[in-house]
Amino acid sequence: MAVNSNGVYVAVADRLVGLELDGKRRFAYEYGPATRVEAATERVFYLTGKDAASTLHGVGPNGSVDWQHDLPIHELLLDGNRLYAGGKAVVTVETDGTIVWRDDTYGEWLLLDPDGDTLYTRSRIRSDAATAYDVAGKKRWTFDPPSNNAWPEAATNDALIVSAITGDTANQPFLTVYAINSQGQPTASLGKETVFDATGLSDTAYLADGNSATGDSNLLALDP
Known about the structure:
This protein is an all-beta fold. It contains no helices and 23 strands.
């Protein structure tokens, strides 16, 4: 479901349903299976299918279908009127359907930094790295920790927090949490049993962690 000033848009089963803000049905666009929906000011981005068989539809507020793109994606992230999409490719699309840039490299779990000038992805086919792009599509760096499972956890204006599963034995922390600077280099790391929530604001990252053995939990404010 997505909401903007024009209405409410629900992707369900094999259709996209557009509603007025008072709940009155405006349109139903029958095309599926429905996967994701995001709503910009004058455009609804509707995703159907899965990965290589996915189609991204540009739908108007009244149900007009203005463009379609077949793309190997399964994830959407809206920033204002620009859509970022991830899957077997990383793609940026404008509301008029223009594909601003595309990188045919695996990338998911899309994350924008607080000032909106860097896009991070969980990257590589094994999902074991984190990659940074500028919003023009230039790949800045890829951080590949000694792990077969890693992901971007939270971003500040100039740094990224990456979690990686590194514990090989019961007496080692399950995760290593890395601080990565704007050049893609690790500057610090912490051992953690789990991180169950994280966010970034300005130059500070906030992590909520826990230890199942002790039942303890903490909220950490980090300066990467």
